[in-house]
Amino acid sequence: MKVTKILPYIKGLPKTIYFNLKYFDFFTAVKLPVLVSQNVLLLQAKGRIVLPCDTIKTGMVKLGFGNVGIFDFKRSRAIWNVSGNVVFMGTCYIGHGSKISVNKNGTLILGSKFAVGAETTIVCNKKISFGNDCIVSWDTLIMDTDFHQIYDEKHRIINYDKEVKIGNNVWTGCRCTILKGAEIADNTIIGANSTVSSKISGCGQIIAGNPVKIIKTNVHWSYME
Q1: Domain CATH code at residue 130
Q2: CA-to-CA distance for 189 and 208, rounded, in angstroms?
């Protein structure tokens, strides 16, 4: 492997060691299952991380690496702000400048072969789950909360947090927004700059727009590593 390829991992080694020792027992931590870039701000490294115990290996999760050409990688700072639960079901790649925020009551589940492009944000107050073989492109926002509470005339909350469910083999285009209550079926393609805030039934579809509508059915796409 060329030095230029391994240099980012070497530079991130202090944060990588700290991160793994923070979350795992010693015998798991020494395997360095999570590699952390030096450009990651560990704002909060609390809560709990769960890994598939039968397939733990070095670098199965990569946080804050990559170089999407339309962003300035040197100034692109990823953020890990976690006090809740994060479950990795397999290999995972979270690109540079991406932000992961999980509240102490939140659970984020990432399926096997999960990949996120640059500058994407995931905010989890309740529960966000992805199936296997999912790709999320750059500059996308996914959240299960409105942050601020809204009340009716009887002072009852009307905007509770709602779970986000994303199935297997879902490809999310760039600059999409996926909001609380969204449910996306297997083998779905979400067009760039789309907004999803409700349940989208039916597998093998292209959906797009704001709000989304079905553009084409009976399609499939191939996950490329």
Answers
A1: 2.160.10.10
A2: 8
**How many residues appear in the chain?**
225
- Rg of the chain, C-alpha, whole Å: 18
Does any domain span residue 200?
yes
Which tokens is 140 given? Answer: 């996308």
Q: Which of 148, 182, 151 is nearest to 164 (CA)?
A: 182
| Within-domain flag for 30 | no
pTM metric for this prediction: 0.93
Tokens 């209550």, located at residue = 181
Nearest Cα to 64, choosing from 45, 88, 81, 40? 40
207 touches 190 (CB < 8 A): yes
Range of the domain at 103: 39-217
Place of tokens 């999320």: 136
pLDDT, tens digit, 9 for 90 and up, residues 170-194? 999 999 999 999 999 999 999 999 9
Q: Is residue 21 part of a domain?
A: no
> How do residues 196-225 score in pLDDT, each as one tens digit?
999 998 899 999 999 899 999 999 888 665
Residue 133: name the closest of 115, 118, 107, 108 by CA.
115
Report if residue 201 sits inside a domain: yes
